[in-house]
Every structure is written in structure tokens, then in C-alpha cells.
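queue> pop job 88
queue> type: inverse folding (structure -> sequence)
queue> payload:
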């Protein structure tokens, strides 16, 4: 049986690359872009481990990035809060996608008709590209509600 490895701050900092004021994790990332490490077969989140090592009480709370860079593990950029705090951060930074309204759906359909790419439409209108695809494929109706599940 392998001995447990104690991950300390030096371990995490040795696996970063400075980008501006951020210390960007150079190891594995989750699909969502967060730092990921494995210790004794258990996956962990780098930014949460660094927050804990920095003395923050993370139990039952989310760890927020003031830099809005999910791969950053700079302790100075990390703070704890609630899910609601995290959503407010995203709204203030303009990172949360808008609700799809009938007006947005009409705009998507018009832009698709003009031949614009889905990714470009999503960036232009500030909506998730998946919504554009669902509108194009008829999964979402003119009111924005799911008509037929794709799954």
C-alpha cells in the first residue's frame, strides 16, 4: 500500500505558470477548466486545496476566483462564498449567459438563415452555443421552452 502524499503549497505552486497576476495550473484540468490533481487515487480540485492551505474555511462553501480564470490557483485571487455570491460575481463580470427570450430566438433564426455560424451567433447574442443548436434543430420552440428532448 502506498503512503499518503501530503500536498503542500509548494507542490501546487511548482505546477503553475504566471500569466499576468494569475498563477495558472499546468496540470490536468476538468472539462470546465478547473485545476485537477490526483492523490492516492482520489481526484481533488487545485483551487479548493490551495484555498484550504491558505487558511480559508471552505467546508460547504464555494471557492470564488476574483480573476475569473478557472485554472488560476493564486491564493490572492481566491475567496469563499455562497453559490449566490458566485452567481453575482458571474453577472458582474458578464460571464453568465442570458435567458433565451422569444426576441433572441427570432434573432438566432434570422442569423442562421443568413448563414452565420452557431458559435458566432452565440458570441454575438451572449447565449450558450447549445441554445443556438437547439433552436436550429427545433428542440426549442419560439417561446424558448424545450419541445422535444434531444436525449
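queue> result:
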Amino acid at each position: 500500500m502506498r503512503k499518503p502524499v501530503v500536498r503542500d503549497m509548494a507542490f501546487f505552486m511548482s505546477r503553475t505558470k504566471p500569466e499576468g497576476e494569475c498563477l495558472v495550473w499546468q496540470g490536468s484540468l476538468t472539462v470546465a477548466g478547473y485545476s485537477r490533481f490526483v492523490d492516492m487515487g482520489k481526484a481533488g480540485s487545485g483551487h479548493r486545496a490551495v484555498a484550504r492551505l491558505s487558511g480559508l474555511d471552505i467546508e460547504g462553501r464555494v471557492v470564488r476566483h476574483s480573476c475569473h480564470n478557472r485554472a488560476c490557483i493564486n491564493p490572492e485571487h481566491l475567496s469563499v462564498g455562497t453559490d449566490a455570491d458566485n452567481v453575482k460575481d458571474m453577472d458582474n463580470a458578464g460571464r453568465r449567459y442570458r435567458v433565451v427570450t422569444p426576441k433572441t430566438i427570432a434573432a438566432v433564426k434570422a442569423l442562421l438563415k443568413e448563414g452565420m455560424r452557431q458559435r458566432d451567433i452565440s458570441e454575438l447574442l451572449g447565449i450558450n452555443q447549445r441554445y443556438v443548436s437547439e433552436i436550429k434543430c427545433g428542440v426549442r420552440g419560439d417561446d424558448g421552452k424545450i419541445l422535444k428532448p434531444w436525449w
